[in-house]
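Q: Given only this backbone (477 positions), what sequence would you predict?
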């Protein structure tokens, strides 16, 4: 069955795909993970992953989606058959569905925090607040599972509502207003951080001075008796974050690619999206770290970082009530446009293959994801010390609660693995003529050859190398 929908223009695809890419990953995750991994060197590795792995995989996804003209599961099936291969390749679509469920389940909980902050901001809770006070507001929220459930339910409801209607009209309208506004607000915040925090350069140094010691030897401090052990976990996190932030590795961009007009050039479109996405992440870092240093906060304080630092800044600035409320509203919108792309692939598949109505499919899947989200909610309070995989013994999984596990397994394992198989399929399984057709036809130009080289060799070897090192099978250095 063919997917009828199509973006009304190339620009709409760029906005929708950027809407998918730009989200909590850029504004919430990037700063705190960069903070946990020591800053500059992590940022450099992250950007290297975006350009050498992220862009080629995103191009492959768009190409496969547009050629398949259906949801990822069916598109992979169609293209595997076209290439005379076993339909097992649609497993890429299936693993994407599972990854999408897991990601959206915790994503919605965090988006719920942003929702909860809107009334807090509006009512002036943060006006003139101390850093301790801001920390306390955050801790009080996350300690209360019922509050978190309320906001998580609202966010899932909002997401289901839009997907149930069909995204094209509503989505196009929403993203064309929200994305530019979000961008300007972020720039304004960075300017505020630059002129008023007095610590702007400290933030710049933290983000751009490359201290590889901090990346490869986390927590290393021989003077205090902490031994220095080399670890590739930081590099794996950078790669995982690149996948997460670009929305690649699970079929979300593949799905949006299915709605892409045949005439749109894939390379320049993808580069635009990737640059916009990286820019927002860097801007978020530049807005946040000066405030972190100005208030003596810890850059490695984890998921609460943005929810504690920004309110302090808003609390001190003129017009902070309005500005702060606006910021969290836009953060919710950024998360919302990302959530669409997490739910859409499975809903489109149910509509195509099971003839379900869009609304039934959206409500059904949304309900299951909502249920799964409860595990993440409890990870911030009642079950924060419950480590479901502790029985595996001494490894990275053993000390993680449900939220940490969902986050780690999707970003650092499922998305890179999905991306690896997408790369292999596009680079080695699809026929030359099929690839060329999608990339603008014969004669193949320089961008095609650059892409083919990256997706054939650089992407697969890069992913494997980081994987193998991180699990400690190969030890370099
Ligand atoms: N990229 C989004 C963010 O940065 C999250 C997201 C949306 C996503 N769709 C995805 C992540 C698909 C992985 C896969 O917040």
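A: Predicted residues:
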């Amino acid at each position: 069955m063919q997917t009828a929908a199509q973006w009304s223009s190339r620009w709409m695809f760029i906005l929708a795909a950027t809407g998918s890419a730009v989200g909590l990953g850029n504004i919430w995750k990037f700063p705190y993970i960069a903070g946990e991994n020591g800053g500059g060197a992590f940022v450099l590795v992250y950007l290297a992953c975006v350009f050498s792995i992220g862009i080629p995989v995103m191009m492959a996804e768009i190409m496969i989606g547009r050629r398949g003209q259906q949801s990822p599961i069916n598109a992979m099936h169609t293209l595997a058959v076209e290439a005379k291969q076993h339909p097992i390749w649609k497993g890429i679509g299936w693993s994407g569905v599972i990854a999408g469920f897991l990601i959206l389940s915790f994503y919605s909980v965090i988006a719920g925090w942003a929702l909860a902050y809107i009334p807090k901001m509006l009512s002036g809770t943060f006006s003139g607040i101390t850093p301790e006070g801001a920390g306390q507001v955050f801790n009080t929220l996350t300690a209360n599972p019922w509050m978190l459930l309320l906001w998580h339910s609202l966010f899932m409801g909002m997401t289901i509502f839009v997907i149930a209607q069909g995204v094209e009209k509503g989505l196009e309208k929403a993203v064309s207003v929200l994305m530019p506004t979000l961008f300007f607000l972020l720039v304004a915040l960075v300017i505020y951080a630059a002129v008023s925090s007095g610590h702007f350069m400290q933030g710049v140094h933290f983000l751009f001075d490359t201290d590889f010691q901090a990346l490869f030897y986390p927590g290393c401090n021989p003077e205090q008796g902490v031994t220095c052990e080399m670890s590739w976990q930081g590099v794996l996190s950078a790669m995982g974050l690149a996948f997460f932030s670009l929305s690649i590795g699970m079929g979300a961009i593949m799905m949006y690619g299915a709605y892409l007009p045949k005439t749109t050039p894939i390379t320049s479109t993808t580069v635009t999206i990737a640059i916009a996405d990286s820019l927002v992440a860097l801007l978020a870092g530049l807005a946040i770290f000066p405030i972190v240093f100005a208030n003596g906060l810890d850059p490695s304080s984890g998921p609460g970082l943005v929810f504690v630092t920004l309110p302090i800044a808003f609390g001190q600035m003129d017009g902070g009530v309005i500005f702060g409320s606006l910021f969290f509203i836009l953060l919710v919108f950024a998360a919302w446009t990302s959530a669409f792309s997490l739910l859409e692939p499975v809903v489109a598949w149910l509509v195509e293959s099971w003839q379900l109505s869009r609304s039934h499919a959206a409500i059904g899947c949304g309900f299951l994801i909502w249920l799964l989200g409860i595990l993440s909610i409890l990870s911030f309070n009642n079950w924060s010390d419950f480590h479901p995989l502790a029985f595996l013994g001494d490894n990275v999984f053993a000390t993680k609660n449900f939220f940490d596990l969902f986050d780690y397994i999707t970003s650092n394992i499922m998305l890179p693995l999905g991306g690896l198989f997408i790369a292999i399929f596009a680079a080695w399984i699809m026929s030359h003529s099929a690839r060329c057709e999608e990339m603008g036809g014969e004669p193949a130009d320089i961008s095609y050859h650059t892409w083919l080289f990256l997706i054939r060799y650089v992407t697969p070897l890069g992913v494997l190398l980081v994987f193998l090192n991180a699990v400690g099978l190969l030890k370099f250095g």
